[in-house]
Amino acid sequence: KRVKTGIVMLNMGGPERATEEDVGGFLHNLFADSDIIHLGKWQSTLGRFIARRRTPAVTEQYKEIDGSPIRKWTEHQGREMVRLLDEMSPDTAPHQFYVGFRYVEPSSRAALQRMKADGVQRAVAFSQYPHYSCTTTGSSLNDLWRHVREQDMEQDFQWSIIDRWPTHPTFVDAVTRRIEMGMQQFNFDQAQCSPDDVVVLFSAHSLPMRVVERGDAYPREVGATVEAVMNRVREKLGFQSPYLLSWQSKVGPLPWLGPQTGDVLKGLKARHQSGEANNPCVLVVPIAFTSDHIETLFEIDLEYKPMVDDVLQFVRAPSLNDEPLLSQAQAEIVAEHLRSGRAVQSNRYKMQCPMCVSPTRCRSIVNPISQSL
In whole angstroms, what is the distance from residue 217 CA to residue 138 CA? Predict the structure, then answer.
């Protein structure tokens, strides 16, 4: 049966096998990407050098978590999304999802080849990053259009883009549900605290400050999600929990967006020990991720938790992974987008960062479904 609408699920991906060959290839592709780490004329040489140096240590981290689960969860979410979409939007059915990873296989190139074999004509580039950044969604879209042109597929599909969805109501409900599940893991009698006392610490992947200072939208969109989620927590769950937003996964000596999650946790621990604050319970909520990966399974669970769980009762909210409300949100977002007839989900996509460093290739679209951007 020919596929009427193909949805390319864009994400970074991760090495499924914790081998130096696979992890090294992933890191090589990551550090070769000037959209995420801009090294100028030294991109190729320095990128390879940094990747080689980091490969042994990062391989050990992936061994601790049995490899990256991003593909497993992306495919699960894709199957659930298209099942719901066929019911929600029969006029555009049948739908099929195609995984397009930036740094590992299956790549956008592989997705395009499968789409052509399936007879797809109407295509949606659907970022699996709810928050837009030039380093994530922007990079994935640039990579997709490069593969389209390299394979002479400019006229094979009519495209539209879902570039961000930070405050979609059902996405907000999905995160709220995961917070509720996290709260259920606390032993409130033993910890001598209640849900209203738990510090809800949202943790998102950080960005180099030079990216932020160019005007990247990511920090404010993550903040918008946090505010929307906590409003929903108060309305739906009745919790009056204090909350914070921090950033994780800084790499290298240059300034990155902060405060760093590890530093915030140390600060909360120190304040509790000194008697300045009486919040012994912390719920860490991964907020810019739609599934588990190394930043949740290794960095939060195996690095941050042991730093503080001798003093604080530390719980990480489950990642969205197989959350039914996430699949519902993804299907609703695509269905709403298809009904709109627009080439781009957000009118912010066409506006480059004020200090953009890639103006000739940033914010483009190949063969758009309409001129309504």
Answer: 11
Per residue in 4-25, pLDDT (tens digit) is: 999 999 999 999 999 999 999 9
Quick check: 72 pLDDT over 90? Answer: yes
Q: What is the DSSP letter of 91?
A: G
Tell me how far apart the alpha carbons of residues 164 and 140 are, in angstroms, rounded to a whole number.
Answer: 13
| Pairing relationship of beta strands 95-101 and 5-11 according to DSSP bridges | parallel
**In this predicted model, what pLDDT tens digit does every residue of 24-50 receive, in sequence order?**
999 999 988 888 777 778 788 888 999
Could you tell me which of 38, 33, 39, 128 has the C-alpha nearest to residue 78?
A: 128
Distance CA 287, CA 301 (A): 15
pTM reported for the whole predicted model: 0.95
Helix (H, G, I), strand (E, B) or coil at 295: helix
Q: Two tokens at 233?
A: 């927590």
Residue 247, H or E segment: strand 243-248
Distance CA 203, CA 314 (A): 14
Q: Is the pLDDT of residue 251 over 90?
A: no
- Locate all alpha helices (DSSP H) within 134-284, ordered by sequence: 139-150, 169-183, 188-191, 209-212, 218-232, 261-274
DSSP, collapsed to helix, strand or coil, labels residue 200 as strand
266: tokens are: 């140390």
Residue type, 16: E
Coil vs helix vs strand at 96? strand
Q: What does the pLDDT look like over 322-363, one tens digit per residue?
A: 999 999 999 999 999 999 999 999 989 988 888 888 777 788
- Residue 56, H or E segment: helix 43-64
Of 248, 265, 274, give the one whose Cα is nearest residue 309.
265
